[in-house]
Amino acid sequence: MNDRSAEPDGAGTAPVTLYGEFTLAGARKVRCAVSLTGKELIVQRLTSSPVERNKLVLSLQDCVGCRAYRSSDSLDPASYLAAYFYPLKRRWVSSGVSRQRVEQCFRLAELQDRRANQEEAEKWARAVRERSARQRYPGDGPCVSELPRPCRIMLLVNPQSGKGQALALYNSHVQRMLSEAGVLHTLVITERQNHARELVRETDLSQLDAVVIMSGDGLLYEVINGLLERPDWEEAVRTPLGVLPGGSGNALAASIHHYSGASLVSSEELLVSCGFLLCKGLVSRMDLVSIHLSSSPRLFSFLSLAWGFVADVDIESEKYRHIGAVRFTIGTLVRLASLRVYRGRLSYLPAGEGCARGAVKLRHNPPPPPVGPGCPSRDSPCQNTLYNSCHSNNSLSARRTESVSSRSASSSLPGPSDSLLLPLDQPLPSDWVVVQEEDFVLILAMYQSHLAEDMLVAPDATLDDGTIHLFYIRAGISRIALLRLLLAMEKGAHLATNCQHLVHTKVRALRLEPYSPKGIITVDGEVVEYGPVQAEVHRGLARLISG
Ligand SMILES: Nc1ncnc2c1ncn2[C@@H]1O[C@H](COP(=O)(O)OP(=O)(O)OP(=O)(O)O)[C@@H](O)[C@H]1O
């Protein structure tokens, strides 16, 4: 067992930094040459068979941990080295790839001295861990920090989420992955609604490296709001958060899986994928959106604000919770059968110069509203919008800043102040866009890519793009066209359907004033007070373990 910087036979191009010959832990007669480079662990069985058939090359990008341990037999001088990988592998039964567990466990018994074998095994384990920590995927976004190793997390599991299997999934998958990665965790099984919220409000966060939820999106919503209710919210909101899918929607889990560049997977594969990302421990910034309602306290949202079709399906399908994600399909069919129209006023502050320019142009010559069923052509993002006033953007910005600072909607609330919003009962700032239509089938504001595991609503959203992706569907859309849109959403293809009734625009803030006397508004899938609501994005306010 030597340190050396030579090429192993037939290995990759990176120089070998450690080389040893060990036997397999489970088959002591099988001897292997093991080489560690900066990027790979290469295991070559020493048999007479052709080299390529006996060589396994494991990328350290896929490694979550490595440990050394002694033989349980006190007379045995051997030590063991176990390395855990989750590479993307082709599925057995269907096409595509998913992360699958690969364990390599070796017996080190070269030396007679028990301690010397243990030191050698520990040297290898350290080297594998250090090199794995340096390996990132090319698609990994800018991370702000990494979880320390070993790290201490609080893992909140909602036993009632989804089909009620979160605890079973923790036992079957998560516990083992976390221990392989050296992640020490305190397991908390939530007992009731708001339990998680109260807990994070009171916990001594200095004793934790992260708070992780295993549930649907509702539990993370509680955690985020609990953190922002603390007197030390500025520090608290920087606590790294993690998500493991255990609910029926699992939108944020699906989003971080999507950002990692991976394709659509089953629920169990999504859990392994998110577990892998959690074990890698790279922390990035995540946008939060503050939500103002007319008489409830301000809320913080990480995912979505919905009114109309989407909110109705989400909440009305609660009664089918026991069947898991299929509940959304049933809910969709039920709501399609009796399609509703919602009346209200939607206004927003555009996110970019491009969008604002389009709207100014249209102000002089607004296009006629669409007529007829079906979806012949797609709108540009800012069509059918009216500016609230006729001033140029620059002068308006200056006036808005002035008025907002004196009448801000959030000046006395805990959490960051909302510089773009005025109190709900006051007129909008003059550079906001007011949508001309007042009849909608749905309004949906998204800040991450997925609304559910199989609903890629905002394909170009990223974790901290500082953008609210605002979608609305105008009344008049036929049932079949709406169904086509919803089906296309599975792969994020709805924007390419050229549906004239679907509008997508990027905004920084929005206000929705429902005229319909009854309805459902949801924030991150949770029902909130029905009535006027407004929202403003806070770029990168929270921290999420996402790769
Ligand atoms: N032990 C419990 N019993 C009942 N409700 C709980 C318990 N623990 C947490 N809750 C509440 O359950 C609600 C739903 O949880 P969550 O959203 O995480 O799961 P879900 O609804 O199944 O998933 P999704 O939001 O992805 O559809 C949350 O509002 C949470 O407060």
UniProtKB/TrEMBL annotation:
<feature type="domain" description="DAGKc">
    <location>
        <begin position="148"/>
        <end position="295"/>
    </location>
</feature>
<dbReference type="GO" id="GO:0043066">
    <property type="term" value="P:negative regulation of apoptotic process"/>
</dbReference>
<keyword id="KW-0067">ATP-binding</keyword>
<dbReference type="InterPro" id="IPR016064">
    <property type="entry name" value="NAD/diacylglycerol_kinase_sf"/>
</dbReference>
<dbReference type="GO" id="GO:0008481">
    <property type="term" value="F:sphingosine kinase activity"/>
</dbReference>
<dbReference type="GO" id="GO:0005524">
    <property type="term" value="F:ATP binding"/>
</dbReference>
<dbReference type="GO" id="GO:0005737">
    <property type="term" value="C:cytoplasm"/>
</dbReference>
<keyword id="KW-0418">Kinase</keyword>
<keyword id="KW-0808">Transferase</keyword>
<dbReference type="InterPro" id="IPR045540">
    <property type="entry name" value="YegS/DAGK_C"/>
</dbReference>
<dbReference type="Pfam" id="PF00781">
    <property type="entry name" value="DAGK_cat"/>
</dbReference>
<dbReference type="GO" id="GO:0016020">
    <property type="term" value="C:membrane"/>
</dbReference>
<dbReference type="GO" id="GO:0012505">
    <property type="term" value="C:endomembrane system"/>
</dbReference>
<dbReference type="GO" id="GO:0046512">
    <property type="term" value="P:sphingosine biosynthetic process"/>
</dbReference>
<dbReference type="InterPro" id="IPR050187">
    <property type="entry name" value="Lipid_Phosphate_FormReg"/>
</dbReference>
<dbReference type="InterPro" id="IPR017438">
    <property type="entry name" value="ATP-NAD_kinase_N"/>
</dbReference>
<dbReference type="InterPro" id="IPR001206">
    <property type="entry name" value="Diacylglycerol_kinase_cat_dom"/>
</dbReference>
<keyword id="KW-0472">Membrane</keyword>
<protein>
    <recommendedName>
        <fullName>sphingosine kinase</fullName>
        <ecNumber>2.7.1.91</ecNumber>
    </recommendedName>
</protein>
<keyword id="KW-0547">Nucleotide-binding</keyword>
<dbReference type="GO" id="GO:0071363">
    <property type="term" value="P:cellular response to growth factor stimulus"/>
</dbReference>
<dbReference type="Pfam" id="PF19279">
    <property type="entry name" value="YegS_C"/>
</dbReference>
